[in-house]
Design brief:
Largest sheet: 2 strands, antiparallel
Order of helices and strands: HHHHHHEEHHHHHH
Number of helices: 12
Oligomer: single chain
Number of strands: 2
Mean pLDDT: 80
Length: 351
């Protein structure tokens, strides 16, 4: 992907290794559909986190400390935003009433779709940044807007998840059965080949994650301009996401201060992006098109702020948050719980 500090050979080998892990993970899901235990999920999450930490050390060895720090800062940001995405994943799987033992397949396919779409966004984003440095103004303003929305609580309407226009379009034009057939995407009913609701679930998960990527990818570009590192942080953040989904269970509801912590992180990176845009300013109506002398935020400070914010928001959520926001009923992703009307996939729910 054209990294300045890494050889093309290393990039190809690293990407091949990461893709192989994703394929291996998918094969496990397809071969053995089941509801993973907490222990199993914990082991896999620990493995993926360890691989990310090891990859950072490898980057330091073959590149330098700067690029390794950029990876760690980007990975932490992307991973924390991915955890926040799990809230809406719970709602989507509940909406379509995905059988617990088949939720892993749905999550895995959705994640792979999201990864391919993110790769396209990263390539386009890198091309824009290389040609138009002022795009940082737009990225920064968008992150500040998103952070303000999180503070105001505009992201609290996840339980009102509505089917996207594209999913509705697919539902109308594809022959989609009312019931699942295990983890299959195609089934035969009365001698007629039909899609199962698993198709709509995978599309919904992938499309929803793409919407979240509109926040996360500009945020990562605020920490590093290296497209290889941006893609690597996304890939490592998505690794183990399905296991994390089952592992966290009711803990998702207890991380009440996580959205506020993410809002602060996005605000911090948004300011950093605006400062970067001012530092490389080329817009004629700002300072006559000349760069402005503004402070630069070092990557070590970014990493410290991101890690500190995540730790603080988690600790506050599990201490003060539990007392101020007691849960009447904890629930697990294994049997998603959604308040309100039926969220079935039959004809009566398609109006």
């Amino acid at each position: 992907m054209g990294s300045e500090h890494l050889s093309a050979t290393f990039e190809v080998i690293a990407l091949a290794f990461m893709v192989a892990i994703i394929i291996f993970d998918l094969l496990i899901v397809v071969k053995r559909p089941h509801v993973p235990s907490f222990k199993e999920c914990g082991i896999w999450v620990a493995v993926y986190v360890s691989l990310a930490l090891l990859f950072g050390l490898i980057l330091m060895a073959v590149g330098n400390a700067q690029i390794a720090t950029e990876f760690y800062a980007g990975w932490l940001t992307e991973y924390s935003l991915s955890i926040d995405n799990l809230f809406i994943f719970v709602i989507i799987l509940a909406k379509f009433k995905v059988p617990p033992r088949n939720q892993q397949e749905a999550l895995m396919v959705g994640i792979i779709i999201a990864l391919m779409l993110r790769a396209i966004m990263i390539v386009l984003g890198a091309a824009l940044i290389e040609r138009y440095s002022w795009v940082f103004y737009i990225f920064g303003a968008y992150l500040l807007y998103t952070a303000w929305g999180l503070v105001k609580g505009e992201g609290d309407d996840d339980e009102e998840f509505k089917e996207s226009r594209f999913v509705a379009w697919v539902r109308k034009r594809a022959h989609v059965a009312d019931n699942f057939d295990g983890g299959k995407f195609r089934t035969v009913i009365d001698g007629k080949r039909m899609w199962t609701p698993m198709l709509l679930v995978a599309i919904s998960l992938g499309a929803t994650d793409l919407v979240f990527a509109l926040d996360s990818i500009p945020a990562i570009f605020g920490l590093t301009k290296d497209p290889f590192i941006v893609f690597s942080t996304n890939l490592f953040a998505l690794m183990g996401l399905r296991q994390l989904y089952f592992m966290l269970g009711g803990l998702l509801d207890r991380l009440v201060y996580l959205p506020k912590g993410l809002a602060f992180i996005l605000f911090f990176i948004g300011v950093k992006l605006v400062l970067e845009a001012m530092h490389t300013n080329s817009l004629s109506f700002i300072n006559g098109g000349e760069p402005l002398h503004v402070p630069e935020v070092p990557i070590w400070l970014s990493l410290t702020v991101i890690a500190g914010t995540l730790i603080l928001s988690t600790v506050l959520s599990l201490t003060i948050g539990v007392k101020r926001h007691p849960l009447e009923e904890a629930h697990s992703p294994e049997v998603p719980h959604v308040d309100g009307a039926s969220l079935g996939t039959g004809p009566e729910s398609r109006s």
